[in-house]
């Protein structure tokens, strides 16, 4: 059987895709990370979600919140941000890009769906468990409280494996 150059390149590309972590492919492209705003989680039954809900980036990198499903926005939680960090609030149904320069833990939410649990976390730079604990102390309501508990556990795991 003869393999053409085109077939060889296809196999090489498929091998690279399988060998690469899919989360890395979905989240980061040269210092630009993408978070989707969705009505329903791609996996599971959760509704009103950010995908991914927890992200770890370096200081100075950019996060693009994509309004994949309309009716959502991304806004910083002013009580869950490092000192000196700039707040943001995107328009409903519009993409927004945010460059995060100050290391620490950033909480964010969708303004109309915060109480429905549409929240997330971004860990910027060298975050410590103490940073996570301080952000976790911020009082949350409704489904946001439950989701943040899950997301802080995910963030703690990220710190352990880093």
Per DSSP, what share of the residues sits in E-state strands of 2 or more residues?
Answer: 25-35%
Going by CATH, the homologous superfamily would be: Cupredoxins -  blue copper proteins
On the 0-100 scale, what is the average pLDDT?
Answer: 86
Q: Count of DSSP E strands?
A: 9
Q: Choose one word for the global shape.
A: globular
Rg, Å, rounded:
18 Å
Main attributes of the structure:
about 160 residues, alpha+beta, Immunoglobulin-like, five-stranded mixed beta sheet, globular
Question: How would you characterize the overall build of this protein?
Answer:
By secondary structure, the protein is of the alpha+beta class. The chain has one domain: Sandwich (Immunoglobulin-like), CATH 2.60.40.420. Helices cover 30% and strands 28% of the residues. It has four helices and nine strands. The strands form two sheets. Strands 1, 2, 3, 5 and 7 form a five-stranded mixed sheet that branches. The protein is globular and about 35 Å long. It starts with a helix and ends with a helix. The N terminus is likely disordered.
What is the structure about, briefly put?
The chain has 162 residues and is of the alpha+beta class. The chain has helices at 5-19, 22-27, 129-136, 142-161, and strands spanning 28-29, 32-40, 47-51, 54-57, 61-66, 75-76, 96-100, 104-109, 119-124. The protein has four helices and nine strands.
